[in-house]
Amino acid sequence: MNSINSISYGDITFERGAYYRVLAASGVGKSSLCNFIYGIRRDYTKRVAFDGRDVADLTISEWCDVRCRHIAYLRQDLRLFGALTAYDNIQLKNSLTGTATRREIEDMLGALGLADKVNWRADRLSIGQQQRVALIRALCQPFDFLLLDEPVSHLDQDNNAIAAQMIVEHAARYGAAVITTSVGNNLALEDCGVSVTNISL
């Protein structure tokens, strides 16, 4: 698969290079939508397609390629390994993609206020700190689409702004789309000068 230029879910279409915010109350289906797109769940009732191709037809090898090269995902439940350090959690992904140097990872950690937490075990970090580590991990791969499920739910305004700028810079590098979900604490994308399309579920 060379690239993914559009993702459709029923009558909703996401185009590469654009920014989207999916808005809905808790329990309505925002995380489910992300999991459908990422192929984690297949109990959807609407058709999910990449560039018109039904994702049900993708092979295991193709899904591996999609998740390594085309769709990055910051899950709401983060899925960090508690016994590993902040750096090692990020490097697990980065070792598969070869995207960032150690210095670049440490610079991202520093920008998000975690310079002194590089070698801390993830289970010693606060939820907000874990969320920032998981965001950096998600950015350590090439992608056509970046899925962010409530990415700043535990971040203050300053870290929200820094995270948003980091996300916009990485998306611009790949000409990628950003799909973020929110129940009210929105990722500050507009403050970075981008236009965001709001979608209600």
Structure description:
Strand 4 (48-50) and strand 5 form a beta hairpin. It contains six helices and nine strands, in the order βββαββαβαααβαββ. With 201 residues, the chain is an alpha/beta fold. The strands form two sheets. Strands 6-7-8-3-9 form a five-stranded parallel beta sheet, with helices on both faces. The protein has helices at residues 30-38, 60-70, 86-97, 102-111, 127-139, 157-174, and strands at 6-9, 12-15, 19-23, 48-50, 53-54, 71-74, 145-148, 177-182, 196-200. The protein starts with 5 loop residues before the first strand and ends with a strand. The mean pLDDT is 96. Helix 3 (86-97) packs parallel to helix 5.
Distance between the termini: 29 Å
Radius of gyration: 16 Å
Largest sheet: 5 strands, parallel
Helix content: 25-40%
- Unreliable stretches covering 5 or more consecutive residues: none
Mean pLDDT: 96
Oligomer: single chain
* Number of strand elements: 9
Run of helices and strands: EEEHEEHEHHHEHEE
How many helices? The count is 6
Shape field:
globular
**How much strand?**
15-25%
